[in-house]
Design goal:
The chain is of the alpha/beta class. It folds into three domains: 370 residues, Alpha-Beta Barrel (TIM Barrel), CATH 3.20.20.80; 52 residues, Oligo-1,6-glucosidase, domain 2 (Alpha-Beta Complex), CATH 3.90.400.10; 80 residues, Golgi alpha-mannosidase II (Immunoglobulin-like, Sandwich). It is built from 16 helices and 18 strands. The strands form four sheets. The chain has an eight-stranded parallel sheet. A five-stranded antiparallel sheet has the order 14-15-16-18-17. Strand 9, helix 6 and strand 10 form a beta-alpha-beta unit. Helix 7 packs parallel to helix 8. The mean pLDDT is 97. Bound molecules: 1-deoxynojirimycin.
Length: 551
């Protein structure tokens, strides 16, 4: 693969609503982000992925856009946005916009027109169908519960919405729609943003009548066209959100010479703790062997054939330290272990706000305290089916999206220093113990571990280019792999659980010249030959040089 400017970069995702509130209205905003740019620069990140800041009625917290050319008033003004781009650039930080083009808000002028009459010039901008047997045109269901079709009185037809009914799906098969979207993308690039994270982009080629939603026949043609029309004009960075992607299709999206996207987000590792085919709420414990197999497949198959994104967290996923780590006794150790495991892989790492200080899931038992439409709709649907509150809450506490959306914990003052007003969503009560101010002060904190990982990627090409190989494949508690480049190797070892497993490394590592690059215990063995038993969540990375000392 040719080197790209962002290959050694780390991306930081900001969910603006919950990051930092400048004006005291309880909602994070753009001036609040600007205030924290020095914090981000100190962490060492290169790119901010900004969850949507466009004008929106906020049915789905900004993923329902009513004007692509305006800033949501809760978040500030276009002048604030310009200042953010400028101030970030002063610190060598790029901005990646969230690009939501599978759907708009039902309050977008296009939809307001579209629903007026069947003859309206904007009618075909959305997906309208007649009823079938006096009911919806098909049985496709919405990701946010209930049918994906909404009947509209004005014309007596149904429109399609894969998400909420306030998020009608655009019809990307309409040439004018695509043209308008490209113009809008250029507008943002001209403003100085460096690229896009593309919301559910695997849906844009959908063929509703065939019930083909993801990976529609025109998907790659459209991405190719978008690349030609917009992205190829300057060095950009793009990542597609692709719930359906496999390593095979990821090569189509990201392969060199395909001219589509730079990388995609896989969902395969994120769905390993749900019962297959039953959706995110159907919980099952993670099997480490599955995780190893899945991540290794992506690492191996995309090596020199595409590019990986690396993530544990975002605004749709629960907090990783609560999910697959231990957010009590071993919060610090397990958060560092998970970070190390991911950041030593090949690809571009994404850090979701608060991950770098080990923020945890929140425990809210009353549905009235939740703000997320997906969670609320799911709860109501299950209640109406007669499922007991306690049973529903079991899934929500583990998987609900508000877990990741609680306000950032900056310090130990009221509301974690997030706002002087009333926060739009409750702050996790553990903010007195878990906050950025303390993390910055403590050189052994999770924050400083992330900072070091981000720095190591910039200093060692092997982290960017090295070939991945899984070792100790069948070990049920240890995740270990190597990265190899020429005569250099990295050996990454992670105890994924709270036990103390024995480690039996292949002999080639026992006599090699090694250096301990990073670890999460201050007294981790300086040489792999001394590492016979791992402590709870212990992780170590050795750098090995094969020369005269190789046995
Ligand atoms: C994926 C986004 O990440 C999620 O937050 C949103 O609800 C859906 N797409 C719909 O835009």
């Amino acid at each position: 693969m040719n080197k790209k400017w962002w290959h050694q970069s780390t991306v930081y995702q900001i969910y603006p609503r919950s990051f930092n509130d400048h004006d005291g209205d309880g909602i994070g905003d753009i001036p609040g982000i600007i205030e924290k740019l020095d914090y981000l620069a100190f962490l060492g990140i290169d790119i901010i992925w900004l969850s949507p800041v466009y004008q929106s009625p906020n049915d789905d917290n900004g993923y329902d856009i009513s004007d692509y050319y305006e800033i949501m008033s809760d978040f500030g003004t276009m002048e604030d946005m310009d200042r953010l781009i400028e101030e970030a650039s002063k610190r060598d930080i790029h901005i990646m916009m969230d690009l939501v083009i599978n759907h708009t808000s039902d309050e977008h002028p296009w939809f307001i027109e579209s629903r007026k009459s069947k003859e309206n010039p904007y009618r075909d901008y959305y997906v309208w169908r007649e009823s079938s047997d006096n009911g919806p045109p098909s049985d496709i269901t919405s990701v946010f519960s209930g049918p994906a079709w909404e009947y509209d009185d004005a014309t007596g037809e149904y429109y399609f919405h894969l998400f909420s009914k306030k998020q009608p799906d655009l019809n990307l098969h309409n040439n004018d729609v695509r043209k308008h979207l490209y113009t809008m993308m250029k507008f943002w690039l001209d403003k100085g943003v460096s690229g896009f994270r593309m919301d559910v982009i695997d849906l844009i080629g959908k063929e509703i009548d065939d019930k083909t939603l993801t990976d529609g026949p025109m998907l790659h043609d459209y991405l190719h066209e978008m690349n030609r029309e917009v992205l190829s004009s300057q060095p950009t960075i793009t990542v597609g959100e692709t719930p359906s992607a496999t390593p095979e299709t990821a090569k189509l999206y990201t392969g060199e010479g395909r001219n589509e996207l730079d990388m995609v987000f896989t969902f395969q590792h994120m769905s390993l703790d749900e019962i297959e085919g039953k959706g995110k709420w159907a919980l099952k414990p993670l099997d480490l062997l599955d995780l190893k197999k899945t991540l290794s497949k992506w690492q191996t198959e995309l090596h020199q054939k595409g590019w990986n994104s690396l993530y544990w967290n975002n605004h749709d996923q629960p907090r990783i330290v609560s999910r697959w780590g231990n957010d009590c006794e071993y919060r610090v150790e397990s958060a560092k272990m998970l970070a190390t495991l991911l950041h030593m892989m090949q690809g571009t790492p994404y850090v979701y706000q608060g991950e770098e200080i080990g923020m945890t899931n929140i425990v809210l038992d009353d549905i009235r305290d939740y703000r997320d439409i997906e969670t609320i709709n799911y709860y109501n649907e299950k209640i109406s089916e007669g499922v007991p509150h306690e049973v529903i809450m079991k899934s929500i506490l583990v998987k609900g999206r508000d877990n990741a959306r609680t306000p950032f914990q900056w310090d130990s003052s009221l509301h974690g220093g997030f706002t002087t007003g009333t926060p739009w969503l409750e702050v996790n009560e553990n903010y007195k113990k878990i906050n950025a101010e303390d993390a910055l002060r403590d050189k052994d904190s999770i924050f400083h571990h992330y900072k070091k990982l981000i720095q190591l990627r910039k200093e060692h090409d092997i982290i960017v280019d090295g070939k991945y190989e899984l070792i100790l494949e069948d070990h049920s508690e240890i995740f270990a792999y190597t990265r190899t480049s020429g005569s250099e190797k990295l050996l990454i070892i992670a105890n994924f659980y709270g036990g103390s497993p024995e480690l039996a490394l292949p002999s080639e590592y026992l006599n090699a010249d090694t250096e301990l690059m990073i670890s999460n215990y201050s007294d981790s063995a300086v040489h792999p030959s001394k590492l016979n038993i791992l402590r709870p969540y212990e992780t170590v990375v050795y750098s090995i040089r094969y020369g005269n000392h190789q046995n």
